[in-house]
Each structure stands twice: as C-alpha cells, then as structure tokens.
Design goal:
By secondary structure, the chain is of the alpha+beta class. The chain contains 9 helices and 26 strands. Strands 2-3-4-16-15-5 form a 6-stranded antiparallel barrel. The protein has a 5-stranded mixed β-sheet with strand order 8-17-14-10-12, with no helix packed on it. Strands 7-9-13-11 form a 4-stranded antiparallel β-sheet, with no helix packed on it.
Length: 468
C-alpha cells in the first residue's frame, strides 16, 4: 500500500507522521458515508487563479547527496515537467525535498503564503536563483563562466546544481551535487543569491466573491494578469437566469484587460441565488510562482513556462433581504490554517459556528476567520446560507518542509533502490509514482481528516446572531 503511495520524488522517504495513517482509513469511510448534504456540495480548492497543471516526470537531472545523522543518501536532482490544462508546459524545481511527488497529480498556481515559501525568509533568494540559472539562463557557457566552472556545464549539471542550491534554502538541508561542475554551480548560486519579491500571479480576480441585492450591479471584480487580455465566460445558466457580466457602464463584456472591472448584472425580479463567471487567457507564467497539489505531492516552484492557458473564477450571491454573504478561502501558512473571508452586504448579520465558536458578520461588514489546522491535515468543510448558498472548501495544509519540523523521522521502505552512497541505500527522484497510487492518495487524505478530528462544517445558524 505504502509502496504505491511513495514511489515518487524521494522513493521510500516519508514524514514520520504518515506511518499512522492506515489505522484511520476504515473509520474515515464511515465518516464520509454519513457526511450528508455537505458531501454533495461543490468542492472548492483554495485556488486564487492562474495555471492548473498535471505532474509529468523528472526530465533533466543529475545526482546529489544528502548528508544527515543517518548517513549519506543519493537522490536525483533537477527539472520536472508539467502539462498545463488547456495547453502549455511548465518546468519546475521542487521546494519540499522530503515529500514524495505523485505522477499525474494535479497542481495549481498558488501564492507563496499558501506554501512553505510563505514562512521561509529565504524564499526571495530562491527566486533569484531561478532568474539567474538554468533554464532561464540557457547559455551554459556564460553560466559556467560566471560560476567559475572552467570545464563547462551540461544541461544535467546545470539542472542538478540549480536544484541543490534551491534545496539549501527551501529545506535547510546539507546537500551536495555529485558532479564537481554541478557542485561548483550550486555554491556560486547559493553565495550570490539576493532577495527578490514574490512574482505577481499570472491571472487573478479580486475579490473572488461579491454579494448584494438584485436589480443592480454586483462588484466590481478586478482582473489582474500579465496577459494582453482575458476572455470572459458568463454564468452557465445566464440565458435562463438573466444574469449578465458587464462593465461599469452596464454594457456586456466578453474580454477585458488587466485592471478592468467586471460586474454581475442581476435582474430585479431574480430570486435569491448565486452565479459564477470565469476568465481565461494565454500567457507565460512568471518565474518563481509556486505550484501546490491537494494530493500531498511535493510543492514545486516555476523555473520556466511556455505560452500557457491560465484561468480564474469569481462568484456572486444575491438576495432581497436578510444576510447576503460573499465567501472565499485561502491557505495562510503564517497562521497554520485556512482563512475564510465572509463579506456581508445584507441587512442582517451572517452567523456561523466554527470549532465550537460562534462568529457573526454584521450587515455591511467583512471579516476573516482563520481555521486552525495541523500540518499535513486534510480538511473538508461547508458554509451554508440563504438563497441556497452552499460553499464547500477542501484541501490539505502543507506549510512546512521536513527541515523546518521537529520530531520527524526519515523512514526508508524495503524497496530496491537505484543507488548507494557511503553504504546507505539511496532513492531516485526520477522514479515518479504511477496512476495506481490515486486511490491510496484519496484514502490517506480522508484518513488525515479523521486523525485531525471530524470534518469541519460551518453551518448558517438560525438562532439569534451573537457578535464576537
């Protein structure tokens, strides 16, 4: 069972806590079966927009050696390749060495704040390395000259040296490249790195949710992108609901540039309800953007992008009276949890209960509530409200690398290993997992919910609102 799950970037290496998951899987099945209406709601991962991609495999790599108290372990280090949904290819390095990479895992572009980079003071140096090394610098002779590598660099040397330099900052690990040329490059990059700011997202909509009364324009929703323009797709039931996507002048919009504002035009006689718009564009994703998976596959950071499809969505909720909440969520690694933001444009307070605490969002106010979670904990909770509002948020909190944790152990499974260094069995990053691991991944995600406590459900309360 575990061999299917862990045949990945670090074959046979897993955080010590994962060994306790199997015992929780049977109990999890009962929890899922009894989830009721919440299980039927549309699940929403905390994706703020951008590129969504599927993990391929390690394409260009060399060897590296990790040194720790248990000995020396040889691994492969280099560039992964991912296929973008809708078209395009991404090249990435990993920034979470001890977490396995699942082949065919789904990844989405994520702010640093939703990954281990958000709590890593050296994240800006990692971006500098990406900007100043392979593949952004594809003149290997020039790169070798800067690094003082007299004998030159191959693509494999450049990829391995770059990944080793990144690991030193992302995982605080003692690691060296096996090839002397790659090691020289890694040392140069580590010593030369300077702080750079996090790159802007390839495409986002701000805010991701709005609310208000029918008979007017709900918004604005502002487009932020580095693409020339984006295409706008109206709600799926626009013809029957009469909801249109328009500019501030009330005229329908089918495309818009960065900085443009979108509004939901809701008919005055519309019953309480909600709708969603989507935008899409083609652009190169900025180097240094993080990519996270909801299946506990290791976090990646972008090293290169072809022209790729990027997208984002925003929702609107409306009602004639009462509470009218707009709900969105984002991982917050600085606070070890998920931020739920509720904006209430109604004339009554919007009240919900979370982990035994009742919260109230006054009419016309907005508030963010942080749901505290354990590292590696899967979560699945739903917020319901008036007009059939039923927002479900799911994911896994992955905010720390093993190097930043305490009390973790490295577990080596009894599998054939491709390399041995210093008498210690090695593992190979190039051996990525097969699709047969998918059901096991799903089971582990469910098990984490049980281990972290019952699934969190935020329910609209009908009792008298209490402000906190």
């Amino acid at each position: 069972m575990f061999s299917a799950l862990l045949s990945a970037c670090r074959r046979g290496v897993v955080r010590g806590a994962a060994a306790t998951l199997v015992s929780g899987l049977v109990a999890a099945g009962a929890l899922t079966a009894g989830a009721g209406p919440a299980a039927a709601a549309d699940a929403t991962a905390q994706n703020q927009g951008g590129a969504t991609a599927t993990m391929g495999s390690l394409k260009t790599y060399g060897a590296a050696v990790i040194h720790d108290e248990s000995g020396d372990l040889e691994v492969s280090a280099g560039l992964f390749e991912m296929s973008v949904d809708g078209g395009g290819t991404l090249q990435t390095y990993c920034v979470d060495l001890h977490t396995p990479t699942q082949q065919d895992a789904k990844y989405h572009e994520t702010p640093w704040s939703g990954t281990s980079l958000g709590v890593n003071e050296d994240a800006g140096k990692i971006r500098w390395i990406l900007q100043n090394s392979y593949p952004q610098v594809n003149d290997l002779a020039a790169l070798a000259a800067k690094a003082g590598v007299a004998s030159g660099l191959t693509e494999q040397d450049a990829a391995a040296g770059t990944q080793v330099a990144i690991w030193r900052y992302s995982d605080s690990v003692d690691v060296d490249a096996v090839d002397p040329q790659a090691e020289r490059l890694a040392d140069y990059l580590q010593q030369s790195a300077r702080d750079l700011a996090e790159p802007e997202a390839s495409l986002t909509l701000e805010p991701a949710a709005v609310s208000g009364r029918p008979g007017g324009l709900l918004g604005p929703v502002t487009v932020r992108t580095d693409a020339n323009s984006v295409t706008v797709t109206p709600p799926a039931d626009a013809e029957t609901s009469g909801v249109r996507i328009v500019g501030k002048d009330g005229e329908p919009l089918t495309s818009v540039r960065s900085g443009g504002e979108l509004f939901f035009d809701v008919p005055e006689d519309a019953a309480a309800g909600s709708a969603e718009l989507a935008v899409q564009a083609s652009t190169t994703v900025p180097v240094g953007r993080a990519f996270a998976s909801e299946s506990r596959s290791q976090t990646q950071i972008l090293a290169g992008s072809s022209e790729s499809t990027v997208s984002a969505t925003a929702s609107a909720t409306w009602a004639e009276q009462g509470a009218i909440p707009a709900l969105s969520a984002a991982k917050n690694c600085a606070e070890s949890g998920v931020d739920i933001t509720a904006a209430n444009e109604g004339d009554e307070a919007f009240t919900f209960e979370l982990l035994g605490v009742e919260y109230s969002i006054p009419a016309g106010a907005s508030r963010t509530v942080t749901v505290p979670l354990q590292e590696d904990q899967a979560y699945d909770f739903t917020i319901t409200g008036p007009g059939g509002l039923d927002k479900r948020f799911t994911g896994v909190l992955d905010c720390r690398t093993q190097g930043a944790e305490t009390g973790d152990t490295v577990q080596t499974l009894s599998e054939p290993s491709p390399a041995t260094v210093g008498g210690v069995s090695g593992t190979n990053l190039a051996e990525t997992g097969s699709s047969s691991a998918t059901p096991v991944i799903a089971g582990v995600a469910i098990g984490l919910v049980v281990l972290g406590g019952a699934a969190l459900v935020l329910v609209r309360k009908k009792s008298e609102p209490t402000q906190h």
